[in-house]
Amino acid sequence: MPEQIVKQRSRGxxxxxxxxxxxAKNVEDQIAVIAAxxxxxxxxxxxxxxxxxxxxxxxxxxIAAAWGCGAKTLGxxxxxxxFGKRTATAGHYNSAAFHRAAERDGLWAxxxxxxxxxxxxxxxAAAVIRAEMGAVDLVVYSLAAPKRTNPRSGETFASALKxxxxxxxxxTVDPITAEVTEATVEPASAEEIAQTVRVMGGEDWxxxxxxxxxxxxxxxxxxxxxxxxxxxxxxxPIYRDGTVGAAKKxxxxxxxxxxxxxxxTIGGAAYVSVNKAVVTQASAxxxxxxxxxxxxxxxxxxxxxxxxxxxxxxxxxxxxxxPGTAPAVDSEGAIRLDDWEMREDVQQEIAELWPSVxxxxxxxxxxxxxxxxxxxxxxxxxxxxxDYEQPVESEIVGRxxxxxx
Length: 405
Ligand code: NAD
What we know:
- By secondary structure, the protein is of the alpha/beta class.
- The protein has a single domain, classed as Rossmann fold (3-Layer(aba) Sandwich), CATH 3.40.50.
- It has 13 helices and 14 strands.
- The chain has an eight-stranded parallel β-sheet with strand order 13-12-11-6-3-4-5-14, with helices on both faces. A two-stranded antiparallel ribbon has the order 1-2. Strands 7-8 form a two-stranded antiparallel ribbon.
- Nicotinamide-adenine-dinucleotide binds at residues 52-58, 76-79, 91, 115-117, 142-145, 227-229, 275, 277-278, 280-283.
């Protein structure tokens, strides 16, 4: 395929193409953060499975495991490949860049592109682990999916981003006009709550761990971690106390059950890590969250404690999951990487800014420009050092094991 100039095509919080060179630069930038901060005695996990490893927190986890610990990584994700002039999704280009960099730096890596919820891909992953890794000592579960088909019953569930019980009215920002308006989201039905729990709760994570444990593919002492979010009180109606929050409560219950089982059987552990709010494809879709994150960015940048996914994963892999140590956890047993976001001084400032933010003062009170820049960067656009006037090869074929799942 001849090279083409790729210009961003997006509308609001939906971007329908991606820039291969921008995505590759994003991956290299994240590798550089990890390489520059690797502790002298970098060790930790050596064989890592990352479910949802092509974008956001999962990609950052994979980079931290590979370049921080020298781990072999197997990534699972669901991405679209390029087709003619149509570009691939960002996660495809990210993964292609990950594989190129891993090969360059002598790191073993394999990926499966397919539906993580299916039995077929779990089977395929088990075969790769058995043949190439022996067993895994860390399983990162970082899926964010709009729907899930249960392979055992054939039912398809859809996740909803809604409050529970009552409608929620709150401030929101329009990504196109940058207007701050009041929006109302109607509450979820009992069916929508139940379906969201089936998609974003812990059932599939549990099935992954059961599959690996059942086949003897979890190393002694193996750990598993899934990601969650809590956030401050003014986001609770839409998040923590809403449909996704209900799913995250199920995820935590699953972690507790898996933890008990892994400790008893292999001396392992299961954790939920509560991460900070960052800009990802999943988080931009949640009503009100972009405005909150824009305020958070302004405050955290000013205080010098701003972090993106890779800085969060640097702390997770180098501090919390450091070898031979049990991570510090809160009273509920969760790892808290949102500790800086939830600092009293940070949240106090946001709580003061929240009622006064309007379309007129958005640029001054909040870092909405930073939010949008990060959003565009997710797709490889607005990345420093990339010349967007230059034609690029967009038909980059993945050098990984593919599976239509
Ligand atoms: P993301 O959209 O960047 O990544 C989702 C990943 O899941 C991608 O790799 C995608 O390919 C993969 N995926 C989706 N459906 C799949 C399927 N059917 N089969 C295989 N792979 C599939 O999302 P993210 O924001 O990084 O979210 C990851 C986790 O982190 C979620 O549990 C989320 O709740 C949690 N989290 C996110 C934030 C945030 O602010 N973004 C904060 C705290 C916790």
